[in-house]
Amino acid sequence: MSTSHTTFTGSGDSFKLGYRFQSYWDLPMAAAFFFGEFGAGMFLVSLYFEYLPGMILGLLSTGVGKPYFHISHMGVPGKSWRAILRPDRSWISRGLISIVFFIPCGALVVLDAAFGWSGGGMLGQLVKVVAVLSALVVMSYQGFLMSHSSAFAIWNSGLIPMMSVIYALTSGAAVTLAMSQMFGTVDSQLLGHAVIALVVVNLLVLLSFLHAAYHGTAGARQSADLLTREQYSRPFLGLVFGAGIVLPLLLLWLGGVNVLTSLLTAIGVLAGYFAFRVLIFKAAVYEPQVNFAARLGLR
Amino acid sequence: MASMGMVFDLKRCIGCNACVVACKQENSLPDGVFFTRTLSEEYGVYPLAKRIYIPTLCNHCEDAPCEKACPSGATYTREDGIVMIDGDQCIGCGACAVACPYDARTQLGKDALTRGLFGEGELTPFEEAGYDRYTAGTMVKCDFCSGRVDAGLDPACVVTCPTDARIFGDLDDPDSKPSKLIRDRKGRVPLAEKNTKPKVYYID
Predict the structure, then answer these.
(1) Which of A3, A4, A86, A282 to mutate to test the interface with B (most CBs of B within 10 A)?
(2) Going by fewer Cβ within 10 Å, which terminus of chain B is more open, N or C?
């Protein structure tokens, strides 16, 4: 039985059996996902190290960057508020509600750290707990949203939410390290080790993800091929692995933690993370109906 | 309660795409937007070459992933099982499109309803009249010609098919034509492993 691996760009205008690419979520959505997760990760890491500028940057990333790119993607931006209406079944609604809690509570945590408005009382602690919990949801909900989709086998994996969280924490830690080296004081030793550990975990999760894809359905294998051997292999291997994994590990291991290595590490991690976000959208293919034709005994 | 569905008889489908044209006309679809497609593939080598045709459209799944993914409540299922989109509630986020395993949904581009297909791009009277029902930027899909179904008619694609390859009816009625065909000729659903319980069956 021959197999057809004809691929087409774009959906809705293909009249051939074969793989069709996902085309609804593109660069603006990838940027929205990136800014949201990075911001939450940045806030949590900076909160742990009590680094105020990092917390502020995290809140700005999630509170300004993410909505900007979401609204630029929306077909009807004026009705975007409706996205909050179905938390009972939609991860988008749950995520947006979390952001609604995260931003103001995160801001109150920053103000408390700067001006001590809570005086160390219960209210301050409660606000901090809400900020942390909502940040955890913001970091992970997009991954759950993607893994919930049965349309794309490469997304339909429990590793996707894990990768969202790991990437968020890794990029947050890397940028916190760079910022603290340039502008402030944080325990660089501990943070440097944290970045290395997170990058290693990132590598393991990425490899597991590719392994699962190669042992999955035809669509998953096709997506993995697109990422590692075919049209997206250069940016995937070069940016996601090269800049995002290998470069930070080499820099921090060989060069130690200083302004230059931490800055280059942060740039590499961010580049790798953003490239992953874009490429995982581009490489998603619908499960081919050609297999269905085979099951019907038509070929 | 009715559960409307469709059966495709692949022995009868000749890939003429009359259904596609009828659908475009009935629903006044803009350029590049299709609610139904007849997928085809050639394989083999002469003299044993063959071509197969697989008509597709929204499967109006009983466990519709698009409905679950929709954050605004725009996607809903009618009592008769037809999955609909309320254009007034749709925000065009695309969550339904990435949830649908069958790539059955399309987003109307922001200029899809202002750019005509013919001539210099100005809208014809037919296009002007038809585009009124849509909102730019929203998601659209096959609704089994719900207006025709409410009037007791079959969808346009079913009526138009010259070989009666499309059979529409109530799948909850064991005596309906589609139910009998599914039972007698072992109807199968596409991508059954996705567990969406589609209501479109294929027989060969």
Answers:
(1) A86
(2) N
